[in-house]
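Subject — a protein and its fold
Fields — amino acid sequence, structure tokens
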Amino acid sequence: MTTRKLAQLAHLADGTETRTLVRRLNQIYDNLGRSIRIEQVAGGFRMLTRAAYAPWLARLGHLPSAVRLSSPMMETLAVVAYRGPVSRADVEAIRGVACGELLRQLMERDLIRISGRSEELGRPYLYDTTKQFLQLFGLPSGDALPPINWEPLQEDAEIDPEPFDSEHSS
């Protein structure tokens, strides 16, 4: 639920007061050792059970089924999440393989969406993540993605492997 909606339902002045009261409520939950917390996810707030109680919830059958993504799907999703909005050609250039089918499957699972068109020749579609993606990964926004240190990745790409030695091949 958004801060605006919470403020409206609780007859609060604004979103700032809502966030302050949610923080205070979470402190009370922490002090009393409660099993729930209110977390900011996908631009709103959601009441969540603490991870320590997941085994109990699993036994009761109250956990949603796990979303299974293959490694190529996760790689493609990561490129879209970190570089989005991004075109299919850019995703394929980064991954080095065709990604059209993977993008389609990620759209079917509502993890990415078409966010517009590029100004490049042919005006290709641009892909970006969805609210479902943020909810699934428990992120308040796309800016909350863990940082990536791109420098070692670029250094590895610049190192040329030693030339092939035909003498030692079988």
About this structure: Strands lie at 36-41, 44-49, 86-87, 112-117, 125-129. The helical segments are 3-9, 15-32, 54-60, 71-83, 88-95, 100-108, 131-137, 150-158. The mean pLDDT is 83. The first strand starts at residue 36 and ends at 41.
